[in-house]
Amino acid sequence: MFGASLKRPSFAAKTELDDLLFRIVSKLQITETMHQDAVEKYEAVGKWLNADEDVFAKLDPLIYPQGSLKIGTTVKPKFQTEYDLDLVLELRKATHLSFPDPVKLLDSVEARIKANETYRKMCERKNRCVRICYANNFHLDILPACPDKEMGGTCLLVPDRTLKDWKPSNPKGYARWFEEQLIVKAVKMQRQIEPVPGREEVEDKAALKQAVQLIKRNRDVRYAKNVEVAPISIVLTTLAAEHYSGESSVGLALLSILNRIVSSIPVQGRLRVCNPSNHKEDLSERWDSNPAFYQAFVQGIRAFRQEWEDLMLTTGVKDVAAKLSQLFGEQLTDVVVKEQALEMEAKRRQGGLAVAPSSGRIVSATSVGATPIRTNTFYGK
Amino acid sequence: MANSFPKLRGLTPVQHILMMQKLHPQFSYRIQRDAVTWMGKLSPTDLSETYEVRIDCKQNERPQVWVMKPKLSQRDESKPIPHLYLEGDLCLYRPSKAEWRPTDLIAETLVPWASLWLYYYEVWHATGEWLGGGEHPIKRKPYRRLIER
After folding, report:
1. B27, B20 Cβ separation under 8 angstroms
2. Sequence-distant (≥ 6) Cβ neighbours of residue A6 within 8 angstroms
3. Is A360 close to B115, i.e. CB distance below 8 A?
4. If both were cysteines, with which of A203, B74, B107, B114 could B23 make a disulfide (CB 3.0 to 4.6 Å apart)?
5. B102 pLDDT band (50/70/90 cuts)?
């Protein structure tokens, strides 16, 4: 009489899954040591530029991080050993009018860097930046820029070699926007929970940052055989931040981000991803000239959404690990599952574990009402 | 028949039953002539399956813990499931170390250990490694010794 009721699956935050995801992300992002090393390296480049009395010293150059290095979402590329680290070289006392030919600015930055014996062999010119490679570690992409006096604020103009023209940019504005999405949304959602988390607490293990890193990693895995069609990081990062709604569980955050991205795909025409710090800039403009790339994005993000929903409903470490392997790589998954188990084992040896009533769930020994796990030795073949 | 109620050396069945009810209320029990059997569910982490576990406690015998559902499975045919007795019940402690004695409450020992065992069993399935430590006995008559003091 009542027919089979259609039950909508309910999704709950899973501590152990979030822990595995955090471990995955920790393996992918730049280490603290490497980060410090990068800071030293780019500050040294800054000094070298500043030491050039004739041109650069007068322009008051300042080098600072932008992109994933700035917002904390670096991901180790799958097919190269070096991280891409993006930096802005802002010539604070210049205007784009100081360089009637924008390519000249790129050339003079390159020339000055190459005047240094050490940098000469490591230096490479790119469309909008000059690259310095530190083998097996990272390369620094240095993007020269002049303040955009017309737009004001943190707006910049950067030379583009191919277009032989200036392009607007606002890396500081973008980073500010991203941090705002992260803080404001997370704090707003968690305000219902007492006590209200502090800014640093939210930033520390920010679910949005982890979600961005997982999306980028999945992109690297998904399009491994078809790298050129893969959506670019800035588009994915912007979409994730735009659609983030403040969850503190990275599993749930990613689920809602993917759901919202998929629902925002228009039936006709294409999705437009604009630079939040400059709405006139379409970050996804290359989808216009390459509809196949757009199709690849749509298919990929829909598949990812479905796979993520499946993962959130999967039980059994083996099946969860199999799904994670597919999404983020087998080796990486194997490492983090083992790492988690070994940490559990270490806690057990210290007598730090207990079993919760009713579920038999393994919890911390300090949990109220749980039965401490006494020392034992699994025996038998 | 007069007094065939199970009596474990050291603790009475009632003590076991009460503590099981207190610490693991999801377990139900059944008393037979000289044995108590508990059935209940364990799920070691929020990623784990939920397992139906059975504990048999018979007078003067070592208690046995079984996984009823889902059935335990091998990773592949060549590799047996680690830390199981020949009968197929879980090997949760080392007898010679006296980690479990008849004076120990099942609720405080075997149940938490079974949950841990299930966690490492799942990790073993995922990675091929038993990461929960443990020892493999030297081949000899497996269990007669276990109920000795």
Report:
1. yes
2. none
3. yes
4. B107
5. confident
Q: Is A125 helix (H, G, I), strand (E, B) or coil?
A: strand
Torsion of CA A229, A231, A232, A237, to 10 degrees: -170
Chain A residue numbers with beta carbons less than 8 Å from the beta carbon of B80 are: 381
Q: Is B27 on the interface with A (CB under 8 A)?
A: no
β-strand partners of A62: A90
Q: Could you report the per-residue pLDDT of A144-164, keeping only the tens digit for each?
A: 999 999 988 999 999 999 989
Given the cut 0.90, state whether the ipTM is greater than it: no
The pLDDT of residue B137 is 61
Residue A323 in contact with partner chain B when CB distance is under 8 A? no
**Total-model pTM:** 0.89
Q: Which residues of B touch A338 (CB under 8 A)?
A: 123, 127, 129, 131
Identify the segments of chain A with pLDDT beneath 50.
Answer: 1-3, 196-197, 199, 202
Tell me whether residues A355 and B115 touch, CB distance under 8 A.
Answer: yes
Instruction: Please say if the pLDDT value at position B6 is more than 60.
Output: no
How many residues are recorded in chain A? 381
Tell me whether B74 touches chain A (CB under 8 Å).
no
Helices of type H across A121-279 = 171-190, 199-204, 207-222, 233-243, 250-264
What integer pLDDT is reported at residue A279 of this predicted model?
Answer: 81
Asked whether the beta carbons of residue B112 and residue A371 sit closer than 8 angstroms, the reply is: yes
Over the stretch A300-346, which tens digit does the pLDDT of each residue have?
A: 999 999 999 999 999 999 999 999 999 999 999 999 999 999 999 99
Using alpha carbons, select from B118, B122, B65, B141 the residue that is nearest to residue A361. B118
Please report, for residues A196, A250, A259, A277, A350, the alpha-carbon distance to residue A188 in angstroms, rounded to integers and kept in the order given.
9, 16, 20, 22, 38
Residue B41 sits at φ, ψ, to 5 deg, of -110, 140
Residue B106, chain A, CB below 8 Å: the answer is no
